[in-house]
Amino acid sequence: MSRVRLLIGTRKGAFVLNSDGKRKKWKISGPHFAGWEIYHLKGSPVDPNRMYASQTSGWFGQKIQRSNDGGATWEPVGDKFVYDGVPGTHQWYDGTQHPWEFKRVWHLEPSLSEPETVYAGAEDAALFRSTDGGQTWAELAGLRSAKGHLWQPGAGGMGLHTILLEAAHPERIVVAISAAGVFRTDDAGKTWRPANRGLKSPFALPDPDAEVGHCVHRIALHPSRPGVLFMQKHWDVMRSDDAGDSWHEVSGNLPSDFGFPIDVHAHEPETIYVVPIKSDSEHFPPDGKLRVYRSRTGGNEWEALTKGLPQKDCYLNVLRDAMAVDSLEPCGVYFGTTGGQVYGSADSGDTWNPIVRDFPAVLSVEVQTLP
Amino acid sequence: MIRVLLPVHLRTLARLEAEVQLEVEGRPTLRSVLDALEARYPVLQGTIRDHVTLRRRPFVRFFACEQDLSHEQPDTPLPDAVATGAEPFLVIGAMAGG
Question: Residue B73 is part of which domain span?
Answer without folding.
Answer: 2-93
